[in-house]
Design a protein that fits this description.
Strand order of the largest sheet: 3-4-5-6
Structural class: alpha/beta
Helix content: 25-40%
Number of helices: 3
Number of domains: 1
Radius of gyration: 12 Å
Largest sheet: 4 strands, mixed
Length: 105
């Protein structure tokens, strides 16, 4: 996943327990404060899901990156993805649901 340190901590805290009960392990493998740096470096990483902060809509897929991408709005009120039309209020449950959807894709 690519996320700012704050978002990475949020993902660890709210989703980890829910994912473990479903048999899915989560590990944040990179954290970026700059979206352009993330888009540039994400191709160097081995991860199953990319989570980007500061999103205003479902993130555009990253060239050459097969992993699903989720977006979290800057105010942490909304989660976008994994599909272009998937939009929901950001809650621990909705985040866990989307991470589970991505992990089984």
């Amino acid at each position: 996943m690519g996320a700012s340190p704050f978002l990475a901590d949020l993902i660890r805290r709210v989703a980890e327990a829910r994912l473990q009960t479903a048999g899915v392990r989560i590990a944040v493998v990179a954290e970026f404060d700059d979206l352009e740096a993330a888009r540039w470096r994400v191709g160097e990483l081995v991860a199953d899901i990319v989570v980007l902060g500061g999103a205003e809509a479902a993130p555009t897929p990253i060239d050459g990156w097969p992993a699903p991408t989720l977006g979290l709005s800057a105010d942490l009120a909304t989660i976008y993805g994994p599909g272009q039309d998937d939009v929901a209020r950001l809650t621990p449950e909705n985040l866990a649901i989307r991470l589970l959807q991505c992990s089984s894709a």
